[in-house]
């Protein structure tokens, strides 16, 4: 999700394979000339792949750590074993043995090149839980043996206003954990947690508190912080608030758990009556079928806030009607078709609509500590690495309750 939005913000006319420097090259003489001179998509992908391979060869020659992962080589999205090199650790780097890595819908979009920005070979994965195996001389926060996590990004400029306020996730120079461009380390594409090890600056690593089941914790590093951080930011974490959660999938089910732990009254809003029992099982107080006009009418003006987790297009005006005056809706899903926002749905009652993309490093650490205190974990199906292609096929059909998590350490070697 965030890859797509950042691509739109920084290159609104297209979603190209990123260049090797933030500023790119000189502008084309004209749009027509650029169109005529541009190589085909296949040629561009071949050049990008060759460039990646050259950089990896240089890294290996300079002493980079050998790594084993699973990667997609093209837009079929099929993953297979892949040998590559991690960068040479620097003074502030932490080397991590990956134990578990969750599978996010964003991973599916990237390996299939749905957003046009895949830099093959792509090693997915940004919900990483592991153990520290080595630290640089300047590392002060972690030591060998610590259990840690790495989420959606592994770098930012650390000097802009967003970074200064702890919102590294909104930095214009944010570096994604997978399929990002790490300009601070030679411009090589980043490779994620579908691998045995990863090297990350300590500034983007979080500590996993004792007592959290590691497999159920992995999805919290993306799904968990994505719903936790807007609840806190918009004051929806106060006890006694009435919070609506739209959708009961990978994001929605953990949103219910966090909201209940905050002391909120929680209503799950879904098009599927069949999800009622599961919603109640996760702690929801009420269940609202959005296709039932009578149920929707009875709930008008009853909620302080709504977290909308649905990634398919859906009308939001009926949902906004459920809010009290000055109520707040936060959208964390990413429908491909633009949503419609009628002015009458927000202006007369002063209602707000905001978006949210994961959270900062501090948000993620606070979320994990809150999860440990309240026993919150994602509902997961743990798989072996050699099942990953089947898992992606099932994910594409929404056939998972509620997140896939790969037992990387327990299966990667045998899968290869």
Q: How would you sum up this structure, described in words?
A:
- Residues 77-406 form the Enoyl reductase (ER) domain.
- This protein is an alpha/beta fold.
- The chain has two domains: 2-219 and 380-415, Quinone Oxidoreductase, Chain A, domain 1, CATH 3.90.180.10; 223-355, 3-Layer(aba) Sandwich (Rossmann fold).
- Helix content is 29%, strand content 23%.
- The chain contains 14 helices and 19 strands.
- The strands form five sheets. Strands 3, 4, 5, 10, 11, 18 and 19 form a seven-stranded mixed beta sheet that branches.
- Helix 7 packs across helix 12.
- 44% of the residues are buried.
Sequence-ordered SSE layout with sheet pairings:
Blueprint: H1 2-10, H2 31-37, H3 41-61, E1 65-72, E2 79-86, E3 93-102, H4 105-111, E4 128-135, E5 147-150, E6 153-155, H5 161-164, E7 175-176, E8 181-182, E9 188-189, E10 197-201, E11 206-207, H6 214-217, H7 223-233, E12 242-246, H8 252-262, E13 265-270, H9 276-281, E14 286-289, H10 293-298, E15 303-308, H11 317-320, E16 323-331, E17 352-355, H12 361-374, E18 380-383, H13 388-396, E19 403-407, H14 408-415
Parallel strand pairs: 12-13, 12-15, 13-14, 15-16, 16-17, 18-19
Antiparallel strand pairs: 1-2, 3-4, 3-10, 3-19, 4-5, 5-11, 6-7, 8-9
